[in-house]
Amino acid sequence: MCPSPLFLRANLRTMDKASVTQELTEIFEDVMDLDEVTLEDGTTANDIEEWDSLSHVRLIIAIERHYGIKFSNAEIESLKQFGDIVALVLTKAA
Amino acid sequence: MLFNSLEFVFLFLPFTLAGYYLLIRAGLRDWIFLFLVSASLVFYAVWNPPYVLLLIASMLANYAVGLGLERLRGRGQASLMALGIVLNVAVLFYFKYANFFVDNLNAVSGANYTLERILLPLAISFYTLQQIAFLVDVARGEVRPTGVWRYATFVIFFPQLIAGPIVHYKEMMPQFFGRRLGRFATANLTVGLAIFAIGLFKKTVIADSAAAFATPVYDMAAGGETIGLLAAWRAAICYTIQLYFDFSGYSDMALGLARMFGIKLPPNFHSPLRAASIIEYWRRWHITLQQFIVAYMHQPLVVPLTRFGAERGYGKWQMFALTTAAPTIMLFLVIGFWHGAAWTFVVFGGMHGIYLSVNEFWRTYRRKRRKKNKPGPRDMVFYHLLTLVCVAAANVVFRAEGVDDAIRIWAGMMRFSDLAALPSVLPANAAEALTEPMLFILVAVSLIAFFPNTQQIMGRYHPILGWAKWRAVALPTIAFRWRPSLPWAVITGVVLFLGVAFISRGQTEFIYFNF
């Protein structure tokens, strides 16, 4: 099986905020089964119908696997806004 | 002491409020919380003095564990947290479930173990959950224990002590110990009284009336009688009305009482019976319990399961079974059982677990198609009705004394052969159709379907914690808002008067006091 484009990009990634935001948006669209979603730092589950406690867990695990990192329960619980996820990925995957 | 009792409304509440504001005026801040905790203990002791000691012991033990959790890190912390949770659950288990297990063991094995009847300590199910949440929050580094009096105020504060809302340390402390304490006293007292009045009215006028229509049918079922189609539906509908107005009335009263002290509580209800799906229903029914499930039960269970499934490369539907259906059903069986030590609650939980899984399955299955053709108005009516019927059917077993009673009522709900005989019992004209239960159901259902809920009525005054999140949800067809004007003062007075006057029909406990 050939690796998905997502993985290719991950290998060549530069860890700046813009590129992480871009990657996370793609993972988000993939997990939530959405096309073309605009995510800003302040976006929360209230703004997106598909983003609930179930899909939140799937999203987090997809991010873990993409970056090869692991979040603690406390961290998962503390992620309320899209910007929180971006910030946490930047610190953990750096 | 019951919120819907004359001694509470006319004695306890005025004295506690007066003492509280006098202490604030006098600048004796350090005494305020000693006073509030003592008053709350009196409030609790009126019911059963010895169990006050259990409450205090539980509070002190949890605070001590909290202190330990703050000092420790890593393994030691995880073990202590596990110990703390196990202790809380063990105490709950002994007082709430020991009799149930001994009885079932005897029934299965034919043995004859005896255990004296243990009286369920009021509020224990709620203060257990609230304190477990505190321990986990400390371990997660979200809060720090900041003094035993503060902690006591958080656990024992009487408006939310008995049956929730389940509050969090981090949302209460800034309110109790911030600089704003005692400010806007007049506004808070007025708004709090209006919320309290609505809650009292819901309980004594609506819920207790619904009980009068529902109870006879459940008594018949308990007596082993066959239940007809109309009676069975009356039992299901009227009990759902009763449960909603009873528990949301209680929660409103808790919110209103806390507001009189200048404290805002999180909401427990936001028009759940106006939901168009079971998922939506659980977001708006007993909200603080649902949030507890998500943060402290669902997430720790589902995260490892999802990791496991992802590592194995499971497909969409395997993942669905492993990470959605199985954990949801399991958690709701546990939550059903949390309500009470009886098989009826296990069945109730199982039904909701299955409902939610079916709902999630349907969503996943139909996502693409739904995006293309949005459901029309007729579909929406169907979704609303389907949700209500599912909820009412589960509430039958929630109410029934035993599972076999519930089965008798469910059988009645499906006794469509009665339809043939219906013309002979149907009313000949419109006046006859308006029998008492029919009229009552019509009024209650339109209140549920079209009118604003308590926080929407009080929407100008930031009635609940996190109001911003709710203000645009489930907007009513008929909208109006309370304001400090003469007409509203009169209306509030009438609502409060009716609420108090109906106490004289006989004080009844809130349903959730049994849990």
Automatic annotation (TrEMBL), chain B:
It comes from Meridianimarinicoccus aquatilis. Pathway: Glycan biosynthesis; alginate biosynthesis. InterPro entries: Ac/AlaTfrase_AlgI/DltB, AlgI, MB_O-acyltransferase, MBOAT_fam. PANTHER family: ACYLTRANSFERASE, TEICHOIC ACID D-ALANYLTRANSFERASE. Belongs to the membrane-bound acyltransferase family. The keyword Membrane applies. GO terms for cellular component: plasma membrane. It is a multi-pass membrane protein. The keyword Cell membrane applies. It is found in: Cell membrane. GO terms for molecular function: acyltransferase activity. Keywords: Acyltransferase, Alginate biosynthesis, Cell membrane, Membrane, Transferase, Transmembrane, Transmembrane helix. It holds the Pfam family MBOAT. This is Probable alginate O-acetylase AlgI.
